[in-house]
Specification:
Order of helices and strands: HEEHHHHHHH
Distance between the termini: 44 Å
Number of helices: 8
Shape: globular
Strand order of the largest sheet: 1-2
Largest sheet: 2 strands, antiparallel
């Protein structure tokens, strides 16, 4: 019983009238430990950014192979939203996160989706402008367009190269 209480408190399991189930909210049980590591300076924001980069570079190849036409359309819509004149930086950051989440979702790997969502949330919580989005926004739009093009063509090498250039560019502003 005590173990079940602990797992419920951590958000790993959910208890309902129908029974006990593994939570679909993987983020909840990942965000707290990641935040704790960053706040205790066991790992810092740079470590988290590096981990995100490693995971997303591996993810982009898989996404390029598995992405559907519908998912490409969703990426195009998200990218279009980022062209809104006068949009607040926080909105742009949110749409950028959705864009990258959509790419990870295209892999079909829910563990990757959960881990990368948690990493991004901790990055946002621990930095005023974790993506340096204001200074390099026009470049981000260009990278997004190139990623969409590569993903649409299921070109994993081009997608990887573009994502690597994206990280090289954004890393200098973080």
């Amino acid at each position: 019983r005590e173990s079940m209480k602990a797992l419920t408190a951590k958000g790993i399991i959910v208890r309902r009238n129908e029974g006990t189930f593994v939570s679909k909210e993987l983020n909840k049980c990942l965000i707290e430990p990641l935040s704790l590591l960053v706040n205790m300076e066991i790992g810092n924001l740079e470590n988290l950014i590096e981990m995100r980069e490693i995971l997303e570079l591996g993810t982009i190849r898989i996404a390029a192979e598995r992405i559907t036409d519908e998912e490409v359309e969703e990426l195009e819509k998200l990218n279009w939203q980022m062209h809104e004149p006068g949009a607040e930086p926080s909105k742009l950051q949110n749409v950028d996160i959705q864009f990258h989440n959509k790419i990870v979702e295209a892999t079909g790997n829910q563990l990757l989706v959960g881990v990368l969502n948690a990493i991004r949330k901790v990055m946002v919580e621990n930095s005023e402008d974790p993506y340096g989005i204001q200074e390099i926004f026009p470049k981000i739009l260009g990278f997004h367009q190139e990623l969409i093009k590569a993903l649409k063509a299921h070109d994993s090498e081009s997608a990887y190269k573009t994502m690597k250039e994206y990280f090289d560019c954004t890393h200098t502003y973080q």
